[in-house]
Amino acid sequence: xxxxxxxxxxxxxxxxxxxxxxxxxxxxxxxxxxxxxxxxxxxxxxxxxxxxxxxxxxxxxxxxxxxxxxxxxxxxxxxxxxxxxxxxxxxxxxxxxxxxxxxxxxxxxxxxxxxxxxxxxxxxxxxxxxxxxxxxxxxxxxxxxxxxxxxxxxxxxxxxxxxxxxxxxxxxxxxxxxxxxxxxxxxxxxxxxxxxxxxxxxxxxxxxxxxxxxxxxxxxxxxxxxxxxxxxxxxxxxxxxxxxxxxxx
Length: 249
Ligand code: MF3
Ligand code: CO
Known about the structure:
Order of helices and strands: HHEEEEEHHEEEEEEEEEE
Strand content: 15-25%
Helix content: 25-40%
Structural class: alpha+beta
Bound molecules: 2-amino-4-trifluoromethylsulfanyl-butyric acid, cobalt (II) ion
Number of helices: 4
Shape: globular
């Protein structure tokens, strides 16, 4: 599939979708408390999204049963809502969710702390977030796609972290997943040229230990192979001729 360049009308709808999603994340983060199940968190998220007259984009996507992926501690991404998974003090929880607004998608993830967490876990969350900002320094016309990938990966690896290789960011628009795929580590080539009007979901997934991940037998939840903690940070952005616009922040 070719990479789409969005029109001014489409960009405005993507802006609206992104603004709503940023509020969904803010509201959801305030609601999540120790003792809650990930099933409850999912229900709260769905309610918030529908409150904005949006469709939860994850619900039913390739059969996904929830509106948000809730990945706790060593879970990397796609953590399934479950009545048996209870978040507790000291956990780190990645919340990845998306909305559809008037046919346009936005996708974003945050990793939050439940109560008091270790200094090491706090650093992992901060470095994962910063790696996104290091990457988007190159998210503008004049640079190439994998300049973003290299900046993300090189930054995270300086801390000794493992950058997940099997999962990538993506183009986004009327579909949640459009071309191109966006790896979070250095590639041998520079990749395609970036052009104003591209909308991308950039999403580093960073492990405290080794980069290897494993798909568990619930068919969705991806965990670190070595059991180390993992963090995720994602925003939908717009490429322009100047600084990128972060639509979901
Ligand atoms: N947010 C994920 C991504 O960035 C997609 C989640 S898959 C779903 O690609 F099935 F949960 F929707
Ligand atoms: Co995504």
